[in-house]
Amino acid sequence: MNIEARNRLSATFRFIVLAIFVVAFFLPLVSMVVTSLKRMDELYHLPAKVFPEKPVWENYVLAWTLVNFGKYLVNSLILTILYAVPAIMSSCFAGYAFSRFQVRESRAFFLLVLSTLMIPVMVTIMPLYMVMSRVGFVNQRGLWFIWGLSGIPFIIFLFRQFFSTIPNSFEESARMDGAGRFQIFFRIMFPLVQTGVIVAGIFAFQWSWSEFLMPVLFLSDEKSTLAIKIAMSYADQKENVLYNIGMAGIVYYTLPLVFIFFALQKRFVAGLLAGGLKG
Length: 279
Known about the structure:
mainly alpha; MetI-like fold; disordered C terminus
């Protein structure tokens, strides 16, 4: 077998392997869309039918109207913005500090921040609820702003990596021209990590958008999020879950994340690669 034949065989093998992974990745999404177009009796039909006999587009109308979709969509967007903006900024400040302020305790504090990734949410959620209830932040959207100010350890790590790739000469030149620390940060350093900001924004938006436990514990029904209403509202009068309409609601729910990811896909991938160039 000559070299050209080997290369062709190797490329074919890689293509087949990647195709298998792509199919495995998209199969749940395809199943979700197909289920959303079925009648309820088709879901329990034996033998199972992969595709509906006739797509029931009315499921999408019911998915929108049964939960007052527009209202809770606005609630979710408000909470996501309240969380994502301060989370990105505080994580950016922290990443810059860990990258540039090389004091003796810097590495120890950085490892301490990263170690919080290993703490289960269930360990902290009840103490957080007790503290927030004492200071009057239960059923207040402002809690999401405070939650965001605490930063996100993973995003702090990403920003530290981004800032570490920027030469110190940029700051030294600005300092010689009389620029202060905040001027250097906002006029020079922050614009240079715009790719990192996009990556952080996608992560922060996704985490807040899909959060379930915090809204259940801290918010009333009127201020609740779309995730809570979709999980609890699609049922008939006998409390039987309407899986087909629920899947239609989930399709609506995932569309913002899909649009954001594909619109910023190149910047997202480039940001992850750039953030891992330097330790």
